[in-house]
Write a structure and sequence with these properties.
Helix content of chain A: under 10%
Distance between the termini of chain B: 37 Å
Number of helices of chain A: 0
Number of strands of chain B: 11
Strand content of chain B: over 45%
Structural class of chain A: mainly beta
Oligomer: heterodimer
Amino acid sequence: DQQVKQNSPSLSVQEGRISILNCDYTNSMFDYFLWYKKYPAEGPTFLISISSIKDKNEDGRFTVFLNKSAKHLSLHIVPSQPGDSAVYFCAASADSGNTPLVFGKGTRLSVIA
Amino acid sequence: EAGVTQFPSHSVIEKGQTVTLRCDPISGHDNLYWYRRVMGKEIKFLLHFVKESKQDESGMPNNRFLAERTGGTYSTLKVQPAELEDSGVYFCASSPLGHLSTDTQYFGPGTRLTVL
């Protein structure tokens, strides 16, 4: 029973355009959400997070949106760059991040020059 | 500041052998987590230490897995005896022990374990 779902295994986007990665969750106890980026043979690298008291958090080219009623979050990357090509994991936690993370299966983003 | 480090980066062993993985968290981080990613599946939680104490070990697959964190610094994860299904990438993550704000977990590069 997956509590965090990333339904798109892969996504291709042209350089300069917007990349939108989606994530759904089922556990209403989750109150902290994170996106990690992962390159091959490396560990997940923290990208951006959002607390459930917010609906948007922005950091440079990266913006995360949270829709609590729909139990849905999304990561927007704009403009997309070839170096953004990686696997992106959505993760969720209860108790403001002081509990183990529950991950989605990841979405492989390919940014085409 | 040094990140989370893990050793070895890759281990190939035969079924029935023993392997010990090591994780050095970011200095000063009291929270230490072990996760595992089996091929093609999601990253799954194994165990959580707060300093030297096991806070949550609900993700440990069975009693062939033993984790320790003596002194509250580095941690080891021993698999004995290893089985084929133990193959995967084992990640360690650490975070500070904060109570006033959300704490991001920072991951190491992982140890790729292959059991033949």
